[in-house]
Each structure stands twice: as C-alpha cells, then as structure tokens.
Design goal:
Layout lengths: L2 H9 L3 E3 L1 H9 L4 H10 L1 E6 L7 E6 L6 E7 L4 E7 L16
Parallel strand pairs: 1-5
Antiparallel strand pairs: 2-3, 3-4, 4-5
Helix pairs in contact: 1-3
Amino acid sequence: MQINVLRDLCASNKIKWTLHALKRIRERNIQATDVVNTILHGEAITHYHDDKPFPSYLIFNSDNISPLHVVASAGSDAAHIITTYIPTLDEWEDDYKTRRS
C-alpha cells in the first residue's frame, strides 16, 4: 500500500473509524478533523507492512497546537483509522518522529 491510496480515500471521505480510535479521540480530546488533516498532510514515519488485516502507517503531523500521531490503513473501500495519540517526549525524540531506544 502506498500512502497516496490512504490519502485519496480520506480526501473522498471514505473513512471507517475503529471503536478503539473513537474511544481514544474522546479520551484525549483530539478532533476528528485533526486526525484526517494528519493523514492528508502529515509525514508517514513508519510503515507496518505486516499489520492485519491491512498494512498500516504511523503518520506524524505538527500543524496543530500539539504534535499528533495517527495509525491508519487503507482497505479496498475505505481508510481505516486505527488509533491516534499525542506523542510524548518520554517515548519520542524532540522531532516526535524518532522513537527513543
């Protein structure tokens, strides 16, 4: 899967939210529009080739007040939003793209 397929599905509003993702955006006060914006304009920092049922991407965006990570994949008919969170410096380097060892 290429990131552009995922972005095209989002741009066409063909999006399926997992229950996990919906729970996380409520718990973390993340706006759904920020999640979609991250997919459309963010940087894919990790590609999880072996994720099931579809390979997924970890996407980073810092256009918002806080940096944001989104994990999403592209199915045949929709983008699947798996989870989203605000990365912390406990787990990530200052660029929020490099995981601490």
